[in-house]
Amino acid sequence: MFRLFFMMPVIICLYEIVSLILPLKISLWIKLLMSLILFAGLGKFFAYRMTPSGFEIYEIPHFVTLILSGIFSFIICALFMLLLKDAIFILWKIFIRAKFPGHYASLTILIIASLSTLYGVYQGVRVPDVITHEVKIPGLGKDLDGLKVAMIVDIHTSMLNRREFVSSVVEKVNSLEPDVILIPGDFVDGSVKARYTDLEPISQLKAKYGVFGVTGNHEYYFDLQGWLKTIKDFGVRLLENEHVEISSGDAKLIIAGVPDPTGGNHNTQLALEGVDENLPVILMDHQPRFARENSEHNIALQVSGHTHGGQMPIVRYLIQRANNGFVRGWYDVNNMKLYVSPGTSQWDGFIIRLFDNSEISLFILKP
Ligand SMILES: [Fe+2]
To answer: In which element (H, E) is residue 108 found?
Structure first.
């Protein structure tokens, strides 16, 4: 299975050389150069896979990361179009039996996939917009009516998302003057030593009632204990199967959090232990796939990330299937509301975003 996963990108790359590059009426040297560019995009993928974590990042310059990740995004983007083209090619050969215009078909795909990749990569690396959601929270007291809860998730600080990006996000969040800030996981990709300075701007986040977070799966791929300490030092209160109560006048709200299941200690029951059943609860759970189990507890709203909204069509469908049907946006799960954020950024191995912009979420809570 592992070997297949390892070989799959090579098979895809070889397929694209045969289906996309060879039919083009261009010189052999240009075909060779294009093939090498495709293989260069795979180089970074293999560099990841050969590390113990499978996600560890070698310290390579920002623009190299951008170019290689861009090529990898192109490979995935072109793949679906080529599969469609070759399905048409087979039908053409069976029913029409004339010469297939392979050059024009491949050229069209090359142009569309290149433009889609350029646009998608731009969407993937830019500082996201703020998207406001008004949420009705049953049982919310009048004194907390209009509470502003900002959420950023899947920041994935990396060689691509450096300090400048994180600072811009922090500035945008602070400009909302939020009462509460939630960060449900995937803060970083890399060691504390390598990424400390890049993530440091989150220490500037300001909210009346505090900044709360939980771990995502990517925190477990590196120095977990080092990151837990560092994130806490940066002023984020990590909720590890625990909750806090915030109040204004007579109104109270519970913010609870569970660590990512990768650590093996994801426990919603424990996180809510001792909570008065009449109080409204917001739960942070990095991955949305436990929403049905979580809905058996007294939770008004679960917020998650992890899926990055699928990042592009077709991939979105696969990600949705891998996450129990939850991929992006609002869901009603029994009596619980679930919001799956498309993420504030994404893992730098796959950076394209088509029809799936990242976001900084702002929830306005209403009784
Ligand atoms: Fe994640």
So the answer is: helix 102-125
